[in-house]
Design brief:
Elements (H helix, E strand, L loop, with lengths): L1 H24 L12 H7 L5 H23 L11 H20 L15 H26 L1
Amino acid sequence: MIPPILAYINAIIFLLISSLHFYWAFGGSWAIQYTMPEEYKESFFNPKNKLKMAISTLIVACGLIAFSWITISNHHDCGIPVSNYWVTILTRVIGTIFIIRAIGDFNHFGLFKNKSDSLFAKKDSRIFVPLCLYLGISSLLITFL
């Protein structure tokens, strides 16, 4: 009973995060200042890079929709043209991606970041790391339970 509930919760979270990325890609600015380390903000918010960054953000948004679709396909036939074996493998890959993100790069983000005094680092510790840990662990649980 738990894996279907986790799959639904994860799928909803992926869709909500995807919606936020679509919002940013099309010019929204709410909470965007918390989404990246300060060193990258100058390049990201540079008007010369606006189209490139919008496309990158759209790719992330579409990837999150795919994650939602794959996750829900563990318990429902959603028309994914691969076998259940591959849906399970892809869900484990998704879980691994989020656990790696939670662990971090040992510098800017994650559990073991060096820089913890910036606005991004504080939001990373309070929001992004716990969310990534949840998504990573629950994605793996969906496939193992």
